[in-house]
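Re: zinc ion structure - here you go.
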Amino acid sequence: MTHKLILSFYGGVRSVTGSNFHIAGPTKKILVDCGLFQGGTFCDDVNREDFAYDPSTIALLIVTHAHIDHIGRIPKLYRDGFRGKIVSTLATKELAEPMLLDCLAVLEREEKRTGKSPLFSKEDIRSALSLWEGIPYHEKKPFDGDFTFSLRDAGHILGSAMVDIVGNGKHLLFTGDLGNSPSPLIKDAEIIHDATYLVMDSVYGDRQHEDVSRRKEILEDIIEETVRRGGALVIPAFSLERTQILIYEINDLVEHGKIPHVPVFVDSPLATHVTAVYRKHLAEFNDDVQEMLRSGDDIFSFPKLQFTKDSEESRAIAHIPNPKIIIAGGGMSHGGRVIEHEKRHLPDPKSTVLMVGYQAAGSIGRQLQEGAKKVNFHGEEVSVRATIRTIGGYSGHRDSKGLLEFVQGTADTLRKVFVVAGEERSALFLAQRIRDYVGVDAVSPEPNIAYELEF
Ligand SMILES: [Zn+2]
């Protein structure tokens, strides 16, 4: 049996989104992740192109985590002929269903507006899920020939995993998105000492986050300031993980009497579904959370917290007098219910819009961060007079220093690092830092390039 794998990059290179890595083993073709390309729009046109390989030839798809830029093209992969097996952690599998159904709803609205043909259907989602198996971290599974694989905790969101492919004592490790540990909620990412080849995240490859230890204080200050001004605090938040972290943090601030009792709305049907999955996986949370759970605290519930059920309840939020906090779906403000809240509150100098997650280049969230005085929501121009704030410490992604430390942890065994899932500047910067500081060959691969890896 030859000990060689051919690794090709078909997405998530020189861009944050669209993760899609292809591995040709001795007898099988396997993918890691099959994500949606996203940028200025929820669904970039490139998603509609054919895959660069024949999906019917793929035996196995391993999924790192349930974010749409890692799973969003799976139903299209099925539609285009894939009938292999899908494997991830059980939490990722359970999160994938509401995430993909929500993705479809957003796509359908976009397709209606633009007249574009459907990328996939509900039936494609159901069929893909029927091929999907959830496995625990560290369970060794066959990959191809003598190669095996297992999942290791990536500490990024509930269920997130690194994919560790092992052959002949050597490891090819895909980090997926690496968590900004310690997270308020989930366990830390595992530290790796045995990677031979590393395919690693670089979303924040060229940037540092503010100190994680201050994030809750800053959140407290922003809530207090906005309440004092009598405004609304609008937080565009990804419905998966960021929203649950915010609920958990605000729950803690409320229960310790640190912020005034104001109404808090979670306005995202997706966040409601996702929070239900979180409640099924409480054992995956970190020790601090375990202790709170043991003391009987319901970490996703406190007085004046309301999950809105339908669009009628969503519209009713406008009639609740300020001050109030609205956590709404649409983390980069290019879709979701947050748009209506931003249209209402961005022109109000008393209100605050707070960014807690990654904002892609070109997104409205990024424009706000860059100080735009006006933004355009699907043709409707809105002036910006609200205070715009960002808390980097809640990022689910490790920053430049943290990524470099991760590589240093396995420097002794490393042969080569492929820097992926970052904007070009970020990926090139991190690759250079790895070469300079760790002394290991590091590249930011271009799309559709294949590398032969010796095992
Ligand atoms: Zn992610």
